[in-house]
Amino acid sequence: MCGIVGLFLKDKSLEPQLGSMLSQMLISLSDRGPDSAGIAIYGAPSRNEAKITIQSAKPERDFRGLEAELAKAIGTPVTITVKSTHAVLRTTPAKIDEAREAIQALRPDIRIMGAGDVVEIYKEVGLPEAVVDRFDVRSMTGTHGIGHTRMATESAVTTMGAHPFSTGADQCLVHNGSLSNHNNVRRELIREGMTFETENDTEVAAAYLSSQMAHGKNLGEALEGTLSDLDGFFTFVVGTKNGFGVVRDPIACKPAVMAETDQYVAFGSEYRALTKLPGIDNARVWEPEPATVYFWEH
Amino acid sequence: MPATKLSKTAAHDHASRVFDLDQMSLRELNQALHNLAPGSNETAWEVLNPKGNHSVAVGVDQPVTIDVRGSVGYYCGGMNSGSAITVHGSAGPGVGENMMSGSITVKGDASQYAGATGKGGLLVIEGNASSRCGISMKGIDIVVHGNIGHMSAFMAQSGNLVVLGDAGDALGDSIYEARLFVRGKVDSLGADCIAKEMRAEHLELLQGLLDRAGVTGVKPSDFKRYGSARTLYNFNIDNADAY
Question: Would you call A275 and B52 a contact, using CB atoms and an 8 Å cutoff?
Fold first, then answer.
């Protein structure tokens, strides 16, 4: 089943509430997927630092001293903010790729959840409320974000099998559905040089979009490509550094409701995810059409 | 059940009960509706703050009116038998699923498979209905003021589907004996569904359906009728490509 949510703010005055709004939306869909949950938040950009979100099953061991060791390895200051099993490392944008490699060398058990100028990604096994509490998501601020609560069908219930999946800088995706040609698409993307962390079908969709955008397509064009190149059931909600997109497969079995006001664009698997948003009673509420791409950019 | 949370309007002969789903659980609401005995004076019900909840007023089997003030989630009014439900908002997937009799009116839009497998009664959607509207309908009448999505009336067996707007792809795929009336354009017809002649008896039937749904200013002659070509009823090897 799975439940997905997305929130793209137009009104800057709501930015301090992004984390709490998105948390409430996700928790309202808990019974669509009790296995695991995750959230990606796009915070305020900073000119001189980029972020890497990392995860470890043994955070006490893996995060201790990492800041200093990584700074030494890449020759640039690094800061670390630990939240439970996750941590966000900040350093100069030019050093991000080097830092990713150094992290893997210094701490082979650490998993990289995502990286970019603004995105932070938190996901774990457990109910949405537990995940939101664990990472203090309610207090997070930002411009847009997406979330997912999972009922696993295609691969194991693990932290890495939870959504969102991020396969490119500031790009991430959540998915309700299941893909049937993901093995083929994965093979093609591996041939292009992309790497995969899991056997999960959704990671393939995320990587497909990253690949399309790396070839110069914008978010809308990349989403358009999923309609011909991915086979199966899907409602995707996608975040990029400054954008937010939605697409459903042509059969459109997986539910989707959207709402738009002057203040925001919101997505929920069901209307009940949207009921506590400000001004919802007067919002334009609609079901996204099958095989139709919707996207917004700041 | 805490009686203090129920209000009774003494001004009317028939008592009105108000359920606020912010104060009471959905189970309490549905249990109270199921507890109604034949001939009960509690004939007018109002549900506040449905907020997208699933299964609001499912399985009601008494001739009461139920006004739901807001939008509902999955399966509102499912299995309805005799009650008249009005949703003053939009409805999620499966509104009126397997309705037996009575009526459901949705003032807004309806999501997927509205009226699925319905055996009787009248379902009116004043906005649009999305995909699979009336799938496997078995006698229900459905009137949609707006448009309907793809794969509507798939395997529809009997009953009538009236659409004042347009229909999406594959209308009436593998249809049996349901009658489909569409005023606007049809993106495509499904397997074994064909346009049919609108005879006097159909114009009369359609006028009756429009009247029952409270639709005015629309002429039955503006509609086209679609139904089964009856070539897929029994397996024929020559039809193998159509399966």
Answer: yes
